[in-house]
Sequence to fold (136 residues):
Amino acid sequence: MSEARIEKLEEEISSLRELLTSITLSVHYRKDMAFEASLSYNQIAGQARTALTLVLGSIQSRAEEEAPNQVRHPEILERFPVIAEAQMVGSIDLAEAIRLVARIVGNQERAYQLLKAHQESGFGVQAYKKLGLGLD
Fold:
């Protein structure tokens, strides 16, 4: 088996493990696990989950008027160019945050729900409030 094929299979196994963990946690759903449940429901794992985490971190930094951490891994930046866009210095509003997340998760409704779930799980609460994403 070629190195590339082995690497691809290892990545798929890793993604499946993450998905299984998310599903297990969502079965025991608690309000503080809303983000894990949302990841599971939307089947986001592996590199897509990593990219989403990086984009969410950049959104939070920008909402707090801080410079986002810069990712310098060509492989993930090539596959998810939205990461570099999210890391741009400058303020951000809720519409842009939703648009950035939607580029990973597929549409704006899912993006909004993931942002809400991330906030409900206790991540970036103040940053999200600054974006106007209040908890109901």
Remarks:
- The mean pLDDT is 88.
- The chain has one domain: 3-131.
- The CA atoms of residues 30 and 37 lie 9 Å apart.
- Residues 3-27 form the longest helix (25 residues).
